[in-house]
Amino acid sequence: MEVGSQGGRDAWQGMSDAFNSDCPAREVLEHITTRWGMLILAALGEGPRRFSELHATIGGISEKMLSQTLRTLVRDGLVARTVEPTTPPRVSYELTPLGQGLTTSLEQFLGWIRQHTIDVVTAQRRHDQQHR
Q1: Sequence-distant (≥ 6) Cβ neighbours of residue 116 within 8 angstroms
Q2: Residue 65: which residues within 8 A CB-CB, separation 6 or more?
Q3: Per residue in 41-53, is it b (16+ CB within 10 Å) or e — as a string?
Q4: DSSP letter string over 68-85?
Q5: pLDDT single digits (tens) 14-44
Q6: Cα-atom radius of gyration of the chain, to the nearest Å?
Q7: What is the DSSP string of 47-67?
Q8: Helices (H) and strands (E) in the chain, counts
Q9: Phi, psi at residue 4, to the nearest 5°?
Q10: What CA dihedral angle connects 103, 45, 94 and 15, to 10 degrees?
Q11: With contact defined as beta carbons under 8 Å apart, do 86 and 75 qualify?
Q12: Nearest to 77 by CA among 15, 32, 14, 16
């Protein structure tokens, strides 16, 4: 048995096929591509934020969903949670190096959405009118 990161990577070879329903990559894909997961990662791409700042930034997210999604992203190693020993404790969240690598791609994806939203909405309306 190999020890170290390369040995661990070799053991997972062939296990990162998200098209396979038994693949662990499917769970990672689900965590990252949820509406809230993507928006939290994008917000943290701008720098560390406190819970209340994230809640204020991401319109429509409940505190419960924000808390659950942050917990998942911390567990996945994409977000770091830091607690400062003050009264009351000050908790902040920021991207880990792994999360920073992901948000580079995520920014391109969100940029495409910003650029093409009107095209998609126009196509939806056209489709809806043709299929009434």
Answers
A1: none
A2: 36
A3: bbbbbeeebebee
A4: HHHHHHHHTTSEEEEEE-
A5: 556 778 888 888 888 899 999 999 999 999 9
A6: 19
A7: S-EEHHHHHHHSTT--HHHHH
A8: 6, 3
A9: 110, 175
A10: -10
A11: no
A12: 32
Q: How far apart are the first and last CA of the chain?
A: 62
| Parallel, antiparallel or unpaired: strands 90-95 and 79-84 | antiparallel
Query: Coil, helix or strand for 19?
Result: coil
What are 98-123's pLDDT values in tens digits? 999 999 889 999 999 999 999 999 99
Task: Give residue for tokens 């991207």.
Answer: 95
> Tokens 């720098």 map to which residue?
47
Give the residues across from 95 on adjacent strands.
79
Token pair recorded at residue 76: 């996945």
